[in-house]
Q: What sequence folds into this?
């Protein structure tokens, strides 16, 4: 790989790159299309999978095709009027409400963390250190993911070298890159310590339990209790969360990794945070993105109960 290719690859997130590769393969292999494509072939592709694939998936496929053509120096066929008209027609003929993950309610957050703590204590009694580590890891991941509104890939890319946590005070986490950081300047995130459901103490308990000093914060643990060297893959977070919820007797099917982010956004909105402060804290750049994560109540009551838990700082200053 040349230096130019290396830098071009670095400009695209790994998840996006994988999705684009799969989209191009689907167009060429499954559909039988040819590259470079014509606008008519792209329009036929959309029509062929209308009603089969969601509108968001079709838009992702168009983005992948557009990126391939522009990167190879070809005219982008997805910009043609016929393609746009077909996509508009698909929206009209196949209207569908966007499916979103259920926001994690504060009561369920308490229940799953209590369950993990109980499981850890039971495992410690029978000297099952691997299970103790799993419980401490999952609790730290869930609490950090909730109170910081992190995406699954952001949780998986956290490095111990980029985290500073002080018990009873707060935690600072640095991410060199994230989805909202288009310029790759990096960003620091802070969260204060809490009296209950504390992400700071959960992180310290996990690091101490696993005796970690450097490298990825969240790692795999095999059936024999051996700790992996690499960070968890973002696609594994949904399974990890649902297993933790099920063990806590919480119906887990509606939850995904987005449930942590949506849960915090909904909690903050119902506890008096204005939209500007919420967007700054989580890292949203536009109001439309933020509103997709907020679960509003049709009866004007808080979907997440107000508690004595308060984030004392909603800006980006150290707690």
A:
């Amino acid at each position: 790989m040349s230096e130019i290719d290396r830098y071009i690859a670095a400009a695209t997130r790994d998840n996006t790159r994988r999705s684009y590769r799969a989209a191009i393969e689907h167009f060429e292999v499954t559909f039988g299309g040819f590259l470079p494509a014509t606008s008519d072939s792209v329009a036929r592709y959309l029509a062929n999978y209308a009603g089969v694939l969601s509108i968001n998936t079709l838009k992702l496929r168009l983005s992948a095709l557009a990126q391939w053509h522009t990167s190879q120096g070809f005219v982008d066929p997805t910009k043609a009027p016929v393609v746009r008209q077909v996509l508009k027609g698909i929206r009209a003929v196949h209207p569908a409400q966007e499916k979103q993950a259920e926001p994690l309610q504060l009561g369920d957050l308490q229940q799953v963390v209590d369950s993990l703590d109980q499981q850890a204590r039971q495992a410690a009694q029978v000297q099952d250190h691997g299970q103790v580590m799993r419980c401490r890891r999952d609790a730290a991941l869930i609490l950090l993911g909730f109170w910081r509104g992190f995406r699954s890939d952001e949780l998986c890319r956290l490095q111990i070298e980029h985290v500073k946590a002080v018990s009873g005070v707060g935690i600072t986490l640095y991410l060199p890159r994230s989805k909202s950081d288009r310029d790759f300047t990096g960003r620091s995130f802070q969260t204060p310590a809490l009296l209950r459901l504390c992400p700071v103490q959960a992180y310290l308990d996990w690091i101490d339990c696993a005796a970690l000093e450097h490298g990825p914060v969240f790692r795999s643990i095999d059936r024999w209790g051996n700790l992996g060297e690499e960070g968890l893959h973002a696609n594994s977070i949904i399974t990890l969360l649902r297993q933790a919820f099920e063990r806590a007797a919480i119906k887990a099917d509606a939850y995904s990794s987005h449930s942590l982010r949506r849960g915090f956004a909904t909690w903050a909105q119902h506890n008096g945070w204005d939209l500007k402060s919420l967007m700054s804290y989580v890292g949203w750049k536009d109001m439309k993105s933020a509103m997709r994560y907020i679960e509003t109540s049709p009866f004007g009551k808080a979907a997440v109960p107000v508690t004595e838990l308060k984030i004392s700082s909603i800006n980006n200053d150290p707690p």
Summary: The chain has 13 helices and five strands. The chain has two domains: 3-93, 106-293. The beta strands are 163-166, 170-175, 187-192, 219-221, 227-231.
